[in-house]
Write a structure and sequence with these properties.
144 residues, alpha+beta, Aminopeptidase, 7-stranded mixed beta sheet, 5 helices, globular, Acyl_CoA_acyltransferase, Amino-acid acetyltransferase, acyltransferase, NH2A_AcTrfase, transferase
């Protein structure tokens, strides 16, 4: 297994993975430069990305293909994206999730109320349009 930065050529596969996981994919194109993919035998089996807004980032679209879950790949993607965010000057990451609160809490994220979210996050398509209103908001301070 290896990981690398995603390219525009990966968009179709990433979107298909997100679709199978019931995650929004409509706006991946504009953030593809901040996506990472994990491959197994040259097949993309996982992906994830960040949106960067100054010192604040939105962790998004973390997906692992069924059959490859429970192997630490999701955790790997999150850690790689946190490192990428740090290199880009981000010191706080936020995310929206319906079903993976426990997973992210295990990685140091905490639940925050939607009214506590920074305006930069509230302006994203993920927040305004793509994620359900029932999604939980989470925050993590990047410390390196």
């Amino acid at each position: 297994m290896n990981h690398r930065e995603a390219t525009h050529k990966d968009l179709k596969v990433i979107k298909k993975l997100l679709y199978t996981g019931n995650l929004p994919s409509e706006d991946c194109d504009e953030h593809i430069n901040n996506f990472i993919v994990v491959e197994n035998n040259e097949e993309i089996i996982a992906a994830g990305g960040i949106e960067v807004y100054g010192k604040i980032g939105l962790l998004r679209s973390i997906i692992v293909k069924p059959g490859h879950r429970e192997q630490g790949i999701g955790k790997l993607i999150v850690k790689l994206l946190e490192g990428k965010a740090h290199k880009l000057g981000v010191n706080e990451l936020y995310l929206l999730t319906e079903s993976t609160v426990d997973f992210f809490m295990m990685l140091g994220y905490s639940v925050v109320k939607k009214f506590e979210l920074p305006i930069e996050i509230k302006k994203t398509r993920q927040f305004k349009e793509l994620c359900p209103a029932s999604s939980k908001s989470m925050r993590h301070v990047i410390q390196y």
